[in-house]
Amino acid sequence: MKTSWNEMQAIESYVLTAGKPEDRVLFQARLLLEPELREKTYWQQETYAVANEYGRLRLKEDIEQIANEIAMSKKYASFRQKILGIFSK
Predict the structure, then answer these.
(1) Within the chain, how many helices (H) and strands (E) appear?
(2) Is the pTM of this model over 0.85?
(3) What distance lies between CA 48 and its chain's CA centroid?
(4) Residue 41: which residues within 8 A CB-CB, separation 6 or more?
(5) For residue range 57-71, what is the model confidence (pLDDT) as tens digits?
(6) b/e for 2-14, b at 16 or more Cβ within 10 A?
(7) By C-alpha distance, which of 54, 28, 49 is closest to 11?
(8) How far is the C-alpha of 22 from the C-alpha of 41, rounded, in Å?
(9) Cα-trace Rg, the chain
(10) DSSP state, 34?
(11) Residues near 26 by beta carbon (within 8 Å), at least 6 away in sequence
């Protein structure tokens, strides 16, 4: 199940919805005719889904860490008071 560079580029283009519409139609036809390509494309889509979810979770953790630092640090006390003043009106 070795993947060539050109095939990998075609899969990437399809999964990322890049490229020309006619290339997408041609690739979709290949997916119908080539089970191995269909499987490779499926796993590439799954890989992107996992990577995106990991990125979202990582971003959420980073935002929570920054929010906690702002909420707890004396360094940001005046900033925190300004923000609380805005929302207490």
Answers:
(1) 4, 0
(2) no
(3) 7
(4) 11, 14, 15, 31
(5) 999 999 999 988 888
(6) eeeeebeebbeeb
(7) 28
(8) 18
(9) 23
(10) -
(11) none
**Average confidence (pLDDT) over 25-33:** 96
Please give the single-letter amino acid code of residue 87: F
* Residue in this structure with the two tokens 């979770």, named with its chain if needed: 57
39-59, pLDDT tens digit by residue? 999 999 999 999 999 999 999
| Phi/psi-derived region of residue 11, left when phi > 0, alpha when psi is between -120 and 50, beta in every other case | alpha
H-only helix segments in 2-34: 5-15, 21-33
CA distance 26 to 24: 5
Tell me the two tokens of residue 56. Answer: 């979202």
Q: At which residue do the structure tokens 């640090």 appear?
A: 73
| Per-residue tokens: 70 | 């702002």
